UniProtKB/TrEMBL annotation:
It is a multi-pass membrane protein. One of its GO terms (cellular component) is plasma membrane. This is Permease. Belongs to the auxin efflux carrier (TC 2.A.69) family. GO terms for biological process: transmembrane transport. It comes from Tunturiibacter gelidiferens.
Length: 155
């Protein structure tokens, strides 16, 4: 398991370090990063999710509900913990705490969980497709609905 996590996380941290070094040396700047973010988040990751999910059968996807639920529980817990922390410790208003919790608890399975699952299980395995599908839709619906309820109730 340690080797699997190391293989999954090492490329991420090496990429971050290389980006930092490139920025410090002037090879890259932060002026045109928005275009790269749009490319990755709006095109590359949805295409990767789509191709993985469509190449996996429904019975195999249904078998992976435990992993998807676990990812969803982690994101929901981070949403709740950040909301409570913002309200109790930072003394934020309800609306500000809700927005902070939405940001912290956002189901960032595309940027975190999907690359880890892809590295651990492979890009076209049922674990990757099923977990990403369940976690993305489940947590996205909860955190968006929770934030909207809090914001509309107090405004």
């Amino acid at each position: 398991m340690t080797l699997i996590l190391l293989n999954a996380l090492l490329p991420i941290f090496v990429g971050l370090i290389l980006g930092y070094i490139a920025g410090r040396r002037g090879v890259m700047d932060n002026l045109n990063v928005q275009n790269l973010i749009v490319l990755v988040m709006d095109f590359a990751i949805p295409c990767a999710l789509f191709s993985t999910i469509t190449s996996t059968s429904w019975p195999v996807l249904r078998e992976q509900w435990e992993t998807g639920v676990m990812i969803a529980v982690v994101f929901v817990a981070s949403y709740a913990a950040s909301y409570i922390w913002a309200r109790k410790t930072l003394k934020m208003s309800i609306s500000d705490a809700s927005v902070l919790a939405r940001t912290a608890g956002f189901p960032n399975s595309a940027a975190v969980a999907l690359p880890l699952l892809t590295t651990a299980y492979g890009p076209s395995t049922p674990e990757t497709a099923g977990s990403a599908l369940i976690a993305s839709y489940g947590v996205g619906a909860f955190s968006l609905a929770g934030s909207m309820l809090v914001l509309t109730k107090y405004f």
